Amino acid sequence: MNELVKTGIPGLDEILLGGMPRNNNLIVEGPPGSGKTTLGLGFIYQGALEYGEPGAIVSFELDSAKLMRDAAGFNWDLQGLIDQGKIKIIQTSPAVLLSEFRSADGVFAASLVAMGAKRLLIDGLTPLRLYAEVNDLPFREDVHLLIEGLTRLGVTTMVTAEKDESLGAVLAHERFVFDTIISLTREEARRRVQRRLTVMKSRGQDFIGGSHTMRIEPGVGVHVYRRAQSRPVTSPDQPTSEERLSTGSAAIDNMMDGGIYKGSVTLVSGISGTGKTVLSVQFLTNAIAHGHKGLLVSLDEHPRQLMRNARSLGFDLQALVDTGDLFIHYESPLELDLDVHFDRIVKLVEKENIDCVVFDSIAVYEMTSRSEVADYLYALASYFKNRLATILFNYESPELLGVSQISEELKGSHLVDNIILLNYVEISTVLRRAIAVPKVRGSRNLQVTREYAIGVGGLLLVDESTTDIQAVPQLPFSSYYGLLSRSPSRQSPAVEEALASGAPLPQSEQLPTETPR
Predict the structure, then answer these.
(1) Distance (Å, rounded) from C-alpha 217 to C-alpha 208?
(2) Structure-derived torsion over alpha carbons of residues 187, 339, 260, 317, reported in degrees to the nearest 10
(3) How far apart are CA 469 and CA 429, in angstroms?
């Protein structure tokens, strides 16, 4: 009785922490189209195929031909296992099945014993209830009769039940007598279907609670993806490192007091065109040159477009992909599901032992699910910190000039160790780019704003040490008005003095940029 039975459903055994106790009676409830029958078919098929446990399918409504057709849609050779005597389909009625359970030595029980059945699927409980209602029979007694009969058979049983507001939900009493309850939901969001699976209870074991993503996939059947927030903490002591990784720019490293700590999380925020992706490529190529493996998770641009744009700046990403040092994972934001996305990234990172990751851009997560984005980012950050992997989160700020807030919905700045702000500065009628590093945990970062250009080699900071123009003096705060205003005025003493005296305006300076690495 303490033995766990693996369901064979991808992802479900992980949520059940290995499976469910043998001989447990399980009910799967959900509305039409939620995947109840597909889940049950997978339970029987995988049990016979992978674990050598023969099983029987009792169907009241679907005939065997339709069940065979559904199984073939997932490339399941149900007929082959039937021919081997490992699976049996029993087409019957509620009245016949209940009469069989009233007898200790009925034909139904004998057939299960003869084939050595270990698993049983009854699809479904609703016809039994409708039969009782039509014939004015106490359905509660029929449920107890069903459970007692299943217990005598010594099989692990899955029963499906409709859960539809128009028909009435599964009754509380029915929920009470079953050992394990799995609830399925099917909802439409932004005109696409989302399925969820929740383990409501399971006697005799622990499990991962909450709502998990469920998909019905070709060649697989039901595939459950555990919610990203439920990833376990591998150790109470978070690993840390004194080692620093370069951003790929010596000048930016200097602003950050030596670069980015290994295992830290950096938020790069700026509007489109300020060079967030360029800085990411710059960071990854430099990290790979120093023996690290990189992953660029692109949610905005297709990999081919990324490679083309990077090539114009002197970065050969295709060569790094060909050598297996760089991986580019692209998913369209139109059909993005956070739990599935998280699962794919985790499997790739663990398989390839990747330790430098860029997410470009996390604004897509905000678009996918505003209510979950903060928790999801925290799950990502926690997972990679526990692996001592270095991460860059790119975020597209909605503001063209300046930054008043990083995100109204994300509220994720407290999750990150470092913040790099990229934005435009308007001087006369010309837009120029500026970089600032307001936060670097554990470092004495330079609280200055530097101008930069984008060219071959990535972000190239302008060297202002060669100019003879006098810098604006840094006076005490008491010398200024409106220090905390959102849009402070920008004035140049050199321009003001020339205007006041009638002298010619100073010439524009052509300042050199840093030499790319």
Answers:
(1) 22
(2) -100
(3) 21
| DSSP symbols for 104-127 | TT-HHHHHHHHHT--EEEEE-SHH
Nearest to 445 by CA among 464, 413, 421: 421
Rounded Cα gap, residues 292 and 285, in angstroms = 9
- Chain centre distance of CA 371: 14
Residue 490, both tokens: 């920008």
Average pLDDT, consecutive stretches of 10 residues, N- to C-terminus, the chain (517 residues)? 87 95 91 94 96 94 88 94 95 84 78 92 84 77 78 88 61 76 90 91 92 95 92 71 96 96 94 94 98 96 95 97 97 89 96 97 86 88 93 83 55 80 83 91 92 95 73 60 53 70 74 74
Strands 156-162 and 221-225: unpaired
Taken in order 359, 360, 362, 365, the sign of the CA dihedral is negative
**Tokens 């100019």 -> residue:** 467
426 contacts: CB under 8 Å, gap ≥ 6: 401, 432
Closest C-alpha to 253, from 245, 262, 241, 263: 245
CB count within 10 Å of CB 510 equals 8
301 HSE (CA, 13 A, CB side): 17
Cis peptide before 103, with omega less than 30 degrees from 0? no
Q: What does the alpha-carbon distance between residue 90 and residue 69 come to, in Å, rounded to a whole number? A: 16
The CB density around residue 347, as the number of other CB atoms within 10 Å, is 10
User: Which H, E and C letters describe 383-407, residue by residue?
Assistant: HHHHCCCEEEEEEECCCCECCCCCC
This prediction's pTM = 0.85
Judge whether 315 and 283 are in contact, CB under 8 Å: no
Pull the structure tokens for residue 317.
Answer: 């990403």
Q: How many CA atoms lie within 13 A of 230 on its CB side?
A: 18
- As given in the structure block, the two tokens for residue 371 are 């209510």
